[in-house]
């Protein structure tokens, strides 16, 4: 017994002085990759169902996410065309009022419309009786984003020389509601995609663990590192997510092409780098959630 313990200590001491060989690390990595593809092979035709289901989930997520980005850019662009009308009092100095309004945060542009010009345009559009001009000098105030209209409106009202204000309140509320609904739906889809992905991968890895239970037990008895056992299973889940994301990119690109046509029709620029953001997001969601689902399953069903 004492001799065995001595030999064990000597072996550990010798092992600690052996320089690390990068070829050994490469061989270990190679073996883990072999184990990963072995697990995929053992899963059989179920692989097709898993990858197809993953692709469908990620397609829905990507299409809604891309639509949300387009909707946001359209809402912001149309919201930018909405403007506050500030009506000046007769005694107001228009240049002074314009100067003060331009200093307000989120104000993008201020345009002065004289009452003479407004009256002349009105007379050209409709027949009006020959009476004295009742219109006031007006300022059209453009705001950078539709969400900031209410805040700017309150500040413009308190500027000296402004007698009244107005804007298309109903349209603004519709834009804001549409934007909020879009963001909420996208968020819910991400949560659902996450739960479905983890459930599918969890069940798949559980099957692999059950089919390789004896082999894994032997590796544990041999003193094989926990990560040598875990890594192939985590990588297997990540591969499912990656392949599902790659397939999902094709229908998502079709959706993007239609959205580009919508942007061109309304002459509204598309969201900056929208295509790249969506593709990277789909890949990230597919790989990270699938790998995470594998890791959760390992902790649940495999005590390593």
Shape: elongated
Distance between the termini: 29 Å
Radius of gyration: 33 Å
Tally of alpha and pi helices: 10
Order of helices and strands: HHHEHEHEHEHHHH
What strand order characterises the main sheet?
2-3-1-4
User: Helix content range of the residues, please?
Assistant: over 70%
Tell me the strand percentage band.
Answer: 5-15%
Give the structural class. Answer: alpha+beta
What does this entry look like structurally?
The structure is a single chain. With 304 residues, the protein is α+β, with helices and mostly antiparallel strands. The protein has helices at 2-17, 22-43, 46-81, 94-102, 115-125, 149-157, 169-211, 213-221, 226-266, 274-301, and strands at residues 83-88, 107-113, 138-143, 162-166.
Task: Describe this protein with a few key phrases.
304 residues, elongated, alpha+beta, 4 strands, single chain, 4-stranded antiparallel sheet, 10 helices
Give a quick rundown of the structure.
The chain has helices at residues 2-17, 22-43, 46-81, 94-102, 115-125, 149-157, 169-211, 213-221, 226-266, 274-301, and strands at residues 83-88, 107-113, 138-143, 162-166.
């Amino acid at each position: 017994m004492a001799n065995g313990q001595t030999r064990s200590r000597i072996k550990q001491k010798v092992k600690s002085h052996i320089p690390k060989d990068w070829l050994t690390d490469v061989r270990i990595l190679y073996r883990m990759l072999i184990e990963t593809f072995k697990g995929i092979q053992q899963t059989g035709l179920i692989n097709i169902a898993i990858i197809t289901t993953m692709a469908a989930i990620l397609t829905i997520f990507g299409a809604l996410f891309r639509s949300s980005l387009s909707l946001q850019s359209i809402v912001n662009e149309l919201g930018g065309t909405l403007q506050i009308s500030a009506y000046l009092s007769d005694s107001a100095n228009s240049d002074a009022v314009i100067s003060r309004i331009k200093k307000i945060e989120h104000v993008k542009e201020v345009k002065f419309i004289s009452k003479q010009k407004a009256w002349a345009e009105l007379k050209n559009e409709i027949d009006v009786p020959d009476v004295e001009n009742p219109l006031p000098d007006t300022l059209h105030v453009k705001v950078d984003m539709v969400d900031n209209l209410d805040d700017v409106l309150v500040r413009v009202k308190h500027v000296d020389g402004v007698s009244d204000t107005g804007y298309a309140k109903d349209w603004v509320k519709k834009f804001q509601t549409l934007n909020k609904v879009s963001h909420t739906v996208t968020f819910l889809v991400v949560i659902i995609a996450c739960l479905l992905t983890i459930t599918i991968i969890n069940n798949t890895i559980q099957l692999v663990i059950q089919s390789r239970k004896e082999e894994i037990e032997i590796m544990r008895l041999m003193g094989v590192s926990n990560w040598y056992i875990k890594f192939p299973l985590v990588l297997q889940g990540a591969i499912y997510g990656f392949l599902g994301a790659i397939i999902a990119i094709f229908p998502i690109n079709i959706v993007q092409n239609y959205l580009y046509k919508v942007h061109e029709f309304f002459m509204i620029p598309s969201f900056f780098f929208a295509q790249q953001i969506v593709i990277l997001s789909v890949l990230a969601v597919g790989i990270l959630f699938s790998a995470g689902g594998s890791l959760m399953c390992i902790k649940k069903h495999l005590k390593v």
